[in-house]
Amino acid sequence: MKRFTAAALAAIVAALSPSVFAQWPLYPLSGVPRGPDGKPDLTAPAPRTADGKPDLSGIWMRSDETEKPGGQPAGRPPLATFGNAGAGFKDGLPFQPWAADLHKKRAADHGLDNPDALCLPQGPLQYHLDPQPRKIVQLPGQILIIHESNYGLRTIYTDGRTLPPQGEPQPYWHGYSVGRWEGDTLVVESNNFRGPLSGQPADGWLDTTGSPYTDALRLTERFRRVNFGQLDIEFTVDDPKAYTRPFTVRIDQRIVADGSEMIEFICHENQMFLKLTGRAP
Amino acid sequence: MKTKLAVIVAVAGLLVAARPVAAHHAFAAEFDADKPVKLTGAVTKIEWTNPHAWFYLNVTDETGKVTNWGLEMGSPNGLMRAGWSRNSLKVGDVVTVEASRAKNGTPNANARVVILKATGQRLFAASSQGQQQP
Description:
The structure holds two protein chains of two kinds. By secondary structure, chain A is an alpha+beta fold. Chain A has four helices and nine strands, in the order αβααββββββββα. Chain A has a nine-stranded mixed beta barrel with strand order 1-2-3-4-5-6-7-8-9. Chain B is 19% helix and 39% strand. At the A-B interface, helix 1 of A face helix 1, helix 2 and helix 3 of B.
């Protein structure tokens, strides 16, 4: 008995042809600038909100770009990767000795405590580089970053408030973030992370090999929507407990313009990882 | 003739999505890429769930003993973005799977390719194997 008719196969192919991200029925995205040929013009200027600021809203995917160490454009920080925040540094990250040891142990354990594998919040850098999409919703007074992966939700307050003191409020998986505009760049400062030193081994993973961060992390991100299609993020880690000096890496994201949506990802509904690694019946 | 061409084109479309499309990494903590298995059998159950879709296969060995294997695939999010639908695989389908064995010795494995016996179609399983790139 034939599983697929020719018509069904043609429908599958038609659904795939605009983008490999076609999944739910595609619904045309409004507001996409088009070139003279009618195709999306991803190099058109970034849209702006009513107050004249660049609008970062949209569904964004990490780009496919790769870089050799030292290969970044002049004056720019190197690209981080999902597996290794320090991929672009010849000598790796400037770990404190205990952090270097923890990084080695985490890699040797093959990511046993990686929050990504445990359906837990992945931390700010993993979230930027996760292969699943994220939706930025820019509102007056706050910007939300909603991640398809592991229920991630970051709130960046842009209403003029300043960061709370460290330890107040309770440290978060996501940290506490405030943002302000410097020209067309959104500068976001975050504190009140927690990390592994308080006893949660799945906390404080910058990447999937487990480069750590701690509650001393003062994170600065600079978001710049280069044009309609590209979001450039500089990510500066200032964490004297885990690193001997601050360092900056770069993330490159591209807009999803074909009407693809985020898909529900209820990570806990059939979580077999604990069973297969001997930590649950 | 038209059907055969459509099969080839559809398979080409499914092969395009080589990039990782879902996260949930810790492949090497659960599975051993150096312990490949090739299993053929009939599908007994499909769990179209996150974080990984699973299907179960009755595999008969040379002695006639039947073992029910569990095969882990990528998340439905990743599978759909790679061209699968919930109905790409059905209970009763006979498939051959190329997979990596679970480290704990149980009859579970991480599927990389699923080949449908009826059509010969090769479906990539959006596996997290090979995504742990630095």
